[in-house]
Write the structure tokens for this entry.
Amino acid sequence: MAYAIGTRVAELLASGRHLTRTDISGLFADKTSALDWGSAWTIDDYNNAVEIGALLWLRESSCIDLATSVHEADARFDWLEAALPPRHVRSESQVELQQFSTPPMLAWLMAKAAAVSAQDTLLEPSAGNGALALWGNIQKASLVLNEIDPGRRDALGQIFPAVTITAHDGELIADLLRGPVPSVVLMNPPFARSQERGKDGETAQRHLRSAIRAAAAEARIVAIMPEGFDASTFSEAQGEASLLLDVRLQQMFRRTGTGIAVRLVVIDKVSTAPSSAITGDTCDLIALHELLNALPPRVETSTNIHRLPIGKPVCLVGKTSTHRASVRPVAPFAATPAARAHAIDLAYSVLADPAPVPEQAGIYLPYRPSRIAFEDAPVHPTPLVESVAMGSVAAPQPNVSPHLPANWQADGLLSEAQCETLVYAAQAFARDLPGQFKVSQEGTALELSKDGHEYRQGFFLGDGTGAGKGRQIAAVIMDRWLAGERRHIWITKNEALLEDARRDWEALGGLPLDLQPLSRWKLGHPVTMSEGILFVTYPTLRSGRAEDTRLDQILAWAGEDYDGVIAFDEAHAMANALGGSSTRGKVKGSEQGMAGLRLQNRLPRARVLYASATGASDIANLGYTSRLGLWGPETAFPTHEAFMTEIRAGGVAAMELVARDLKAQGLYLARALSFAGVEYEILEHSLTEAQVRIYDAYADAWAIIHRNLEAALEATRVVDEDSGDTLNRNAKAAALSIFEGTKQRFFAQLLLSMKLPSLIPAMDAALGEEHSVVVQLVSTAEAMLDRRLADLSVEDREALDIDLSPREYVIDYLTKSFPVRLMQVFADEDGNLRSEAMSDDEGNPVFCPRAIAARDALIEQLCALPPIATALDAIIEHFGTEAVAEVTGRTRRLVLGRDRQQRLERRSPSANVAEAQSFMEGTKRILVFSDAGGRGAPTMPTLAVETSSAGFIFCSSRAGAPTMRSRGSVAPTAPTRPRPRYFGR
């Protein structure tokens, strides 16, 4: 309607008629039959119609263009002002959106200041009815218009029918604008009202900054800004904007409803201005024209500049199929009838008095069984020690006779220390906890009940690395297996340890197929194994659906009267089972910890064995040990909460007392390898000048990435660019966390690679002296290889040429994790500004072009830096696969063929076992292992594997969680073997 009335106004003006408010109202009455505004038409329609009529008259009838002399133009603008009624009345929405259109002559002067021509692309980011765009249209310039108000946007579409008009928030025009890049910007933004923020005194500044960023290099920007706007400081902060003019204007908007003073600002998008800025203060447009005449000419901008469309970030990760090959259920297998016939009772003698305490060495005591002696039992391959506190306490006198294969002594299947574990575990399983209990409704707690069940006592094996916890778990299960109990459950950290469990079980005379992973059976289907050892991982234990869980599947297989062994290997994975408290309040119990508790509580007659070298780094983490009787009836602590409170108050000393008390009851053993006789030496590598230059180059690159990350967080509106306030704490925390984690992994790999010039010659020297060599590495770069392979086409796979430099860590981070998703700002219920991910009308994510450009530039710079070899592949390349036994978590690796071409070699789950065996047998004299491969891997030579060479162990310094250090460490363990030398740095 406003446009239709506006065309009538333009026609009347063209006829030379002066119009009053009554005349305009009459035009609306003719159209709507309503003489005054109300339901049929509004004051917005009235004001817009007058403005549109003036614009159409200026374009079609005024004979004014940018070449018109200022006095002639002034006369015609004066006539137009007199011919139209003033518009002092504004609607609430016009005030809310601060819709004060630019007076016609001021708009003409702004276009002259911009020197708009037919070669320009003109952007008006808050176009209104097109008062500024009109002069670009008259000059035949290409127009790029944006208006958020629907009514005015419709009018623009009719005034400029050939122009595409967008509806973006002007504050985000640089991020959301697509298509031609403007060479001129004319703008009159809202001053203190933001679409997202509401009342905001920085609104005009935000709009201007976004317009400058949207414009082409060397573009000219002419803007009306608030009176208090500091143009000089603003332009200096942009770094790409040079202030040319800053003039205070008075009384320019009096006829449109406001008498506020404003500033006219002219900026060129160049790094330096040709002269100092023109300043002034005037209320006269002729005087303003004189100031504008002093502006320097515009710098020519490139023609036909088009903005590249910004799509989704490139995804370098290939799609993986979710289809899983069907796995046939394992058929029930027959038990070996001869197994029971070849079993014997474990013979030992009970000492009336505890064995003498050996001489203390530091804070340790040499280990010896304190209450029992085994006849002809093999000594543990490597001497063991106990802490002084534990070694000074004697275990109780046992009276049980566990079962073992008849050949356990002759074949050296168990050492005397491992036999002691079997005896005291069987002793613990022979008695019950005091009282009768029923399971709580949640299933994680036991409640005293006369009608409840009696619960069997459990046992905790706390041995450190090298004592053979897997072999001892297998021995405890074998005892019951030989007694006729053929259903047991072995729970551990991951399924990769299945082969290690089978190895330990087979060593004691069992069949590898006795152990079957629960993953063989689909969720919701019954386990069809009639007897055997069910191998379960903690993630599997806690998994399931609302109607079916893996825990229910296990319980259905076990049955209510289950009295087999439940072995919780790596039991610390159930830490925080009952929750606790922290400085932030109560902490909910872990899912897998609660699942482990429910399994124990639902099977009261099960023989529960906990095994972990790091059972509890915090007292709250002992919540899963419900079968040890640490709290409850006939104890000093009626509840778990009371136990936790009292022991925590007592500190480390109280924890030590708990451990001593458990050993005195025969419920806990904790031995560790002795390092007596082990030699330590620092192998120091001095960086070469070339390495220093490489390190400095990458350090500088990370510093640049950090600066760009901070800028990207502002560009994507995770952090407010003006105030510095964080608008999306989660997004910022995630971005910084990924950044720091990637940086740490990169530099760990970089430093490790830089040690190779010293490490490889040292290995050569050790091998030349007929020694064996073991290398512990931080990383294998498998994840990097997987990503590179996923990016390859079929043709690329035929001729592999893959760079696995640590540099790829950085490129992967930039490609996948650098913040480029644009955020939209909103106010929460408390009025605080927050931001959330922005999507377009079709639900697609919106990306920030500036962040993407910064990311792509960083990737380009990184690709120019020198590549660095990964340590594991460099060692294998130097010594060859025939000499190096690799015990890592890698499932595939790149190796060089005789033709020096890369080929992909797959590694089966049993590869680590075979590689470790080849090292122990001396076939391969170099062993390289990582945390993932070394955890539980058979890298400990047993009594059956004799080698005569001493070991050289090279350990790269690294940071790690206390509960994860030293897993899978390798040490020669034959009793007559020379002690190893450790090299670390």
Notes: The first helix runs from residue 2 to 14.
